[in-house]
Amino acid sequence: MVATSALSVLRCRLAAGRPPALCSPRLLPPAGRTVWRGPAAHSRALVVLDDLRQLPQSPRPALLLGAAGLLPFAAAPVLMLRTGHFSTELLHAQLAYGACILSFLGGVRWGVTLPDGAPQRPDWANLTRSVTPSLLAWAGLLAPPSAGGLMLIGGLGLAGYWDMVMYGYPAWFKALRFCLSVGAILSLWTALMCKWFLVDQEKAAAKPEGDSASQ
């Protein structure tokens, strides 16, 4: 038993580059699969702080495009807070963009299982988790804005968690996913808070007309 555990730790260190404390048989890559070897470590463990230390190792295009992808999320609540009025159009635009991003994240997981020698198999578990974000995004667009926003928040959080614990993604990617998911979720939540606490722009514009008509 001791020899088996030692071999498992050694195999994990050689294949994934993780320290022994994070190595156990359940963290090893699936049997019979060729392991992707890269500059960053791979793991199924949820080790956010360790992954965040690898964020500076992110390729510049991924880092810049990922950060730019947060702008449409943040634009809606920023504009609402600056004007002091809630805008239904801005919320709908944000939800539509969030649904597109959530569907894209599911496609990333699908694609990572397809190449020969990929660390994940295209099995029921992986492919089901790949299509779930798209279904949540679609349902979020059909639901009322408040419920739709909460569904997108839940979908982004769930997809982010699945990616953070998935074996095969480099640590810099997990760190980037964590930061971008937090930014997107906070932006969606802030927009919902604006809906609940700010004056609706359409109602504010229609009120003077109603008052003048009554006079």
TrEMBL record:
<dbReference type="InterPro" id="IPR021836">
    <property type="entry name" value="DUF3429"/>
</dbReference>
<feature type="transmembrane region" description="Helical">
    <location>
        <begin position="93"/>
        <end position="112"/>
    </location>
</feature>
<dbReference type="Pfam" id="PF11911">
    <property type="entry name" value="DUF3429"/>
</dbReference>
<keyword id="KW-0472">Membrane</keyword>
<keyword id="KW-1133">Transmembrane helix</keyword>
<feature type="transmembrane region" description="Helical">
    <location>
        <begin position="175"/>
        <end position="198"/>
    </location>
</feature>
<protein>
    <submittedName>
        <fullName>Transmembrane protein 69</fullName>
    </submittedName>
</protein>
<feature type="transmembrane region" description="Helical">
    <location>
        <begin position="62"/>
        <end position="81"/>
    </location>
</feature>
<keyword id="KW-0812">Transmembrane</keyword>
